[in-house]
Amino acid sequence: MVGCKKTFLSQEVNPNQPSVASSANLLSGAEATTAARLNNVTYAYLSVWMGYTTPSGNYVPSPTLEQYSFTNTSFQVFNAIYNNLANYNAVITQAAADPSTNNYAAIAQIMSALCYQELVDNYNDVPYTQALNSKLYLFPAYDAGQAIYNALETRLDGAIATINSSGSAANPGSADIIFGGNMASWKKFANTLKLRIALRQSNIAANTAALKTEVAKTASEGYLDDVTFAVANAGYSNSDLNSGQQSPFYLYYGFSASGGEQTGHAYYRLNTFFKNFLGGFSDPRLQQDFAPVGGVMVSLPLGGSNGALTNSVTSSYGPGLDIGPTMNATVLSGAEACFLLSEGVLGGYVTSSNTAQYYFEHGITASFVAVGLTAGAAATYYGQAGVPNVNWAASSANYQKAIITQKYIALAGYGSFEAYNEFRRTGYPDLTAARSIKSGALGTGNAPTRIYYPSTEFSQNLAAVSAEPTVNVFGSKIFWAK
């Protein structure tokens, strides 16, 4: 006892629970949280509304999914994303006092931009300038979605500049579970997010020139593509000693360590719309995305046949998506990156020695390879002469439609939220046939245009959220929507 400090028996501080986590631990945890949100149950409802999946016949019909009858407690990501942002913000704050962690801060800035874009794409106006600062703003005001998008471009420029000026700063290494501390790849990721933010606003003609200039500012840093893309792996494991440590997609849509069927695998089945959509293109990815039953793809329409076709006779997620418990978690796939570049070249946002067709076909190839097919199979597929939205030459009447159609197919499984965003931006593909056939389904058109602000905002930040226009989930649109 005589060798102990006077504070040894203090009850105010628990030495096993430090009040300040290291930048390395904060970054790893925040990246893992983002990856889990994008790959797990969060956007399962959009997989249904976008026509990929439908509830199994084993279950009682869900009014929220099949009749679009949901409330401000349904499908919420608001608090989860802000909690995630708080950890990225802590990394940024630590770097202000310790420049040796500037690379950590740059990554946190890039991932924060990803998260804020996700918030805007869900809710339109959200807190930004007053967010994450409860000491000054206990009730943060809402910023316009357009203003936040503009700020994110600047944030990403700043992150790239920080990386370029931080040559002597510590490299995050394995603490970065996405690129392993490869800062050149992080600059490409930042640039790709800038391109996605710009293209998302392509319907706003007045912004086009400025956005093209913004994208060109950092074009020399390069972009993600089918070789370098953003996936995370936090050391996912299937060990019985690490229950719940599986890759997030497999954790919900696959099987437990003991071989039991997880909830998502049992609940979500092949949607008839997606089966017919891919069948019309003779697309072999269907047999990889979903599992045949007795050699046949068996599907259900949204809102129909509940109780008639049970799990034993309907197609679940297949081996191309349910790869295994240690599989990477997709943050921004090679296929999505290539389709962004294809549209970027097509629209004049990106200057490249490669053509829009080059990136279109590389996007298809990346999608084929990701689900376990070969590049040769992809070439055969996009080589189908005379098939619009598959063959580039045959798509000359509407190249954008071809790009977004193939992006939609490539986003099956891990990318339902981005598919929803691109549908709302472009109207592609036509999802009329994917609409619920359930009696009493609300609204008109293909699917709701947005979700409500969460109930927690009305109980905790009433004045700010009440200043926003009343939300009509079948009419209110994100500022960039068509």
Helix/strand layout:
Blueprint: H1 23-39, H2 44-49, E1 53-55, H3 63-66, H4 78-97, H5 102-123, E2 126-127, E3 142-143, H6 145-164, H7 183-200, H8 208-217, E4 230-232, H9 248-253, H10 263-267, E5 268-270, H11 272-279, H12 286-289, E6 329-332, H13 334-347, H14 356-370, H15 375-382, H16 399-410, H17 416-426, H18 455-460, H19 462-466
Antiparallel strand pairs: 1-5, 2-3, 4-6
> How far is it from the N-terminal to the C-terminal residue, by CA?
71 Å
Largest sheet: 2 strands, antiparallel
Strand order of the largest sheet: 1-5
Cα-atom radius of gyration? 23 Å
Secondary-structure element order, N to C: HHEHHHEEHHHEHHEHHEHHHHHHH
Mean pLDDT level: 94
Number of helical elements: 19
Extended strand count: 6
Examine the secondary-structure arrangement and name the CATH architecture of the domain at 77-224 and 449-482.
Alpha Horseshoe
The assigned structural class equals: mainly alpha
Helix content: 40-55%
